[in-house]
Design a protein that fits this description.
Strand content: 15-25%
Number of helices: 11
Number of strands: 8
Radius of gyration: 17 Å
Strand order of the largest sheet: 1-2-4-3-5-6-7-8
Shape: globular
Distance between the termini: 28 Å
Length: 264
Amino acid sequence: MAFARVNGVVLHHELRGAADRPTLVFSNSLGTDFRIWNRVVDMLEDDYRIVLYDKRGHGLSEATPQPYRLGDHVDDLAALLDHLGIGAAAIVGLSVGGMIAQGLATLRPDLVRTLVLCDTGHKIGDQAMWDQRIETVNEKGIAALADGIMKRWFTPAYRSPDNPDFVGYVAMLTRTPVDGYAGTCAAVRDADLTESTRALKLPTLCLGGDQDGATPPALVRELASLIEGARCEIIENAGHIPCIEQPQATAELIEGFLRQHVPH
């Protein structure tokens, strides 16, 4: 385990793969830690240097008091990459991680070579939805929302108490610090990246699960339409987190895209 204090917060992170390979940076979704990428990374780490990290308030990273701004998460990632001495990288972001990736490409284009935006949008949800979620989490805890969140995260076939992996991901969600979860809800609530993302000019792949209940395929396609030349792919039999349900399809799409745009 590796920890670094950057931008005023301690971030848990991990480096995998050879330092002389092109770098992939993974930013995970709300209520998860970087272990969601493990099966995808297993398929990619022979050819890439991998950076995994837990964003502020998630996993083993420090949970500062809520609320957060999306800019806090963007600044955290920029500071971590500077700390690690990593220059231009391919940034792979899921959900809020995809918003962080978009924000990083705007704030620090020197750090971003290409984008892979998974199950995300330029704007996600509305204020009333996020306010209600924040209130519930602060008053009753994340477990009060877990069933509804799982229906958006995973397909019905995956969402079974007989599936030990599913039980584990419920635990990952409900053990997220309340400040981290609610604080990041506020960050997503207040973020509208429409115009800044429309101005991006870099190779971009947008991915989405065909049964995503949080950022449905229509939103992923709308995001792709904002970025000139962006490619959009919808993964079958996947909810909001295809890297868990369909890791091979996810890794193959990422690898095929990067082979076109990232020198090896």
